[in-house]
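Request:
You are asked to prepare a plain-text protein record giving the amino acid sequence and the backbone structure tokens, at your earliest convenience.
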Amino acid sequence: MSVAGLKKQFHKATQKVSEKVGGAEGTKLDDDFKEMEKKVDITSRAVLDIMTKTTEYLQPNPASRARLSMISTMSKIRGQEKGPGYPQAESVLGDAMLKFGRELGDESSFGVALIDAGEAIRELGEVKDALDMEVKQNFIDPLQNLHDKDLKEIQVPQTSHTLPNTVLVPEGENSYVKGAWGRSQDL
């Protein structure tokens, strides 16, 4: 620490002691300063939270998706129609921007920008959620139904005498596999 910094710290400590011991009144902060301090605190929290949510948006966490998938499966087992949906990262980011934009207010340029960007990103999340539901209903569910019901009805059950990895081979001079005709040989 420099000499000037040490001198400044010593002066602050002396002032604090004289306020406590001597009953001297501390410096009063005016309302404008308190309002600016509040806005700086909100801005600091906003920047930190938005950075975190933006990172989650750019690099989704597979563990949270797995947890929500498990919760959805458990709700199906319990007989509930639909479990909680996966919150889109866009919607979470947009909600955070809207929250802090409203806290900062319309008189703040940063607050107005957060509100505008938050609304746009939130709409993007809603569109993505609608797309996910549409793909599930119109693509994944019909394919699952085809696999689970229709294809199982069409499939011919395998008999015990024909195994999947065997072929019938004739016996002869040019045959690479020795065995009787009609007898199955493992590949």
Remarks:
- Residues 165 and 187 are 6 Å apart (CA to CA).
- The helical segments are 3-22, 31-58, 62-77, 89-104, 109-154.
